[in-house]
């Protein structure tokens, strides 16, 4: 918890820090990458720097953490810390990088605040930073210790590459050396390092979908404007070897909850739903499961036949779809959950574009689903999680 000395300083300055930190973080990243350009080779996504989502995520996480310390002095925001730590672990972040971040972040804070960055203010926010960093380091060390190996990335060979929908390709990999594989849990993801046009490695996270034993399988939609997915789609060939992380991610099915489940997805967000359905069909086929999916068309829907097969094997499962293409799906247009009967007491898992999930969550909460029962996975920096009070309203 915050010390008695730092708490009133943070209370007095959290407004200005929260207001200024979106301006501080771009300066911080510029300074850090100038001093440590190696961090852009395999660690940080240039795309997330360019579009501003990574700086926004860092800014939001620090402000949110400080706010939590003030409002809940005897606890930490465990959900947020876990989400961040899993992402860090998938990138192989080590404890020795936290001082690097600290040095350049606080240099940017001092430059931005000027005379307002008094020794007392800097010391108080330094305490906030290290409380957060130490909590993350502890979680990340625990995640690393759970792996079947002591490496951050291992070589995997591509053994299969097949189209599964319009603009969507499935990739299956096998180990290219004898590094032990950590078993994955449905809903988890891996980071893959791809060498891009200028020779740097760029990491991206992809949800694992069911595969043969000893393999890793992912499904990737091509973003024509992206830096990595076009290379995977167009250049990576069977036989090529890529560096892949151990599996991480905390959006998984609760083994102690046996009530109804609602699995909501749009587009490529179907991938964790496929993983959940595979687990449920094998381990709990009698479970009441409602699958809701939105997409452009049947042809654009990844894994549609696989989803239908899983649902057909589960007597208490139902699939409802919303497709934009005329005459396709159960309903046309955008997802309207009032058109599906949400089971009472259900836990909800969502994955898809942020605007889609925000809309669906609002509909669910308006329909009586408690906010605390709605879980989600998001691809890329999680800006939604950082507005925690708004996201968990009506919990």
From TrEMBL:
What are the GO MF terms of this UniProt record?
2 iron, 2 sulfur cluster binding; FAD binding; heme binding; metal ion binding; nitric oxide dioxygenase NAD(P)H activity; oxygen binding; oxygen carrier activity
Keyword annotations for this protein, in alphabetical order, are: 2Fe-2S, Dioxygenase, Heme, Iron, Iron-sulfur, Metal-binding, NAD, NADP, Oxidoreductase, Oxygen transport, Transport
Residue ranges of domain FAD-binding FR-type in the record: 151-254
Catalytic activity field = 2 nitric oxide + NADH + 2 O2 = 2 nitrate + NAD(+) + H(+); 2 nitric oxide + NADPH + 2 O2 = 2 nitrate + NADP(+) + H(+)
Q: Where is the Globin domain?
A: 1-141
Please indicate which superkingdom the organism of origin belongs to: Bacteria
One biological-process term from Gene Ontology? Answer: cellular response to nitrosative stress
The protein, known as:
nitric oxide dioxygenase
Family matches, as Pfam families: FAD_binding_6, Globin, NAD_binding_1
Q: Any idea of its EC number?
A: 1.14.12.17
**Which cofactors does the annotated protein need, by name?**
heme b
Recorded source organism is Microbacterium lacticum
Q: Which family does it belong to?
A: In the C-terminal section; belongs to the flavoprotein pyridine nucleotide cytochrome reductase family. Belongs to the globin family.
Q: What class of enzyme is it?
A: oxidoreductase
């Amino acid at each position: 918890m915050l010390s008695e000395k730092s708490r009133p300083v943070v209370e007095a300055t959290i407004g200005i820090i929260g207001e200024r930190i979106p301006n501080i973080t771009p300066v911080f990243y510029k300074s850090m990458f100038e001093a440590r350009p190696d961090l852009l080779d395999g660690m940080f996504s240039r795309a997330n720097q360019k579009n501003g989502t990574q700086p926004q995520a860092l800014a939001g996480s620090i402000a949110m953490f400080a706010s939590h310390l003030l409002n809940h002095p005897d606890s930490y925001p465990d959900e947020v810390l876990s989400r961040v730590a899993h992402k860090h672990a998938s990138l192989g972040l080590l404890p020795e990088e936290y001082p690097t971040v600290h040095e350049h972040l606080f240099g940017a804070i001092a430059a931005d605040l000027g005379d307002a960055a008094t020794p007392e203010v800097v010391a108080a926010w330094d305490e906030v930073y290290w409380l957060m960093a130490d909590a993350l380091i502890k979680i990340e060390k625990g995640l690393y210790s759970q792996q079947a190996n002591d490496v951050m990335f291992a070589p995997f060979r591509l053994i299969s590459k097949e189209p599964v929908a319009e603009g969507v390709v499935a990739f299956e990999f096998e180990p290219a050396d004898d590094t032990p594989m950590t078993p994955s849990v449905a809903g988890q993801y891996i980071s893959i390092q791809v060498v891009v046009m200028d020779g740097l490695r760029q990491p991206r996270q992809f949800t694992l979908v069911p595969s043969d034993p000893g393999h890793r399988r992912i499904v990737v939609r091509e973003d024509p404007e992206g830096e990595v997915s076009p290379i995977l789609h167009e250049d990576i060939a069977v036989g090529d070897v890529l560096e892949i992380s151990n599996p991480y991610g905390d959006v998984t099915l609760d083994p102690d909850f046996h009530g109804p489940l609602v699995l909501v997805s749009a587009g490529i967000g179907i991938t964790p739903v496929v993983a959940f359905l595979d687990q449920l069909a094998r381990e709990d086929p009698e479970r009441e499961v409602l699958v809701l999916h939105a997409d452009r068309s049947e042809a654009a829907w990844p894994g549609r036949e696989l989803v239908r097969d899983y649902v057909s094997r589960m007597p208490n499962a139902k699939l409802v779809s919303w497709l934009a293409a005329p005459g396709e799906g159960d309903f046309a247009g955008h997802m309207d959950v009032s058109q599906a009967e949400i089971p009472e007491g259900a836990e909800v898992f969502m994955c898809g574009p942020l605007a889609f999930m925000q809309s669906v969550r609002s509909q669910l909460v308006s329909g009586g689903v408690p906010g605390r029962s709605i879980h989600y996975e998001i691809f890329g920096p999680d800006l939604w999680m950082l507005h925690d009070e708004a996201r968990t309203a009506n919990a």
